[in-house]
Amino acid sequence: MENFEPTIIGFLCNWCSYAGADLAGVSRLQYPPNLRVVRVMCSGRVDPTFVFKAFREGADGVLIAGCHPGDCHYTDGNYNTFKRFPLLLKVLEQFGVERERVRLEWISAAEGTVFAGVVKEFTETIRRLGPYRKELPKGGAKIG
Amino acid sequence: MVKLKLAVYWAASCGGCDVAVLDVHEKILDIAAVADIVLWPVATDHKYSDVEKMAPGSIDVCLFNGAVRNSENEHMARMLREKSRVLVAFGSCAVSGGIPALANFKEREDILNRVYQETPSTVNPEGVKPVPESAVPEGTLHLPEFFGFVHSLDQVVEVDYYMPGCPPTAERIWEVVQAIVSGNLPPRGATVGALEKSLCDQCPREKHDKKIKRFYRTHEIIPDPDRCLLEQGLLCLGPVTRGGCGAQCISANMPCRGCYGPLPGVIEQGAKYISSIGAIIDARTQEEVEEILAGIVDPAGTFYRFGMATALLKGANR
Question: Is residue A110 part of a domain?
Answer without folding.
Answer: yes
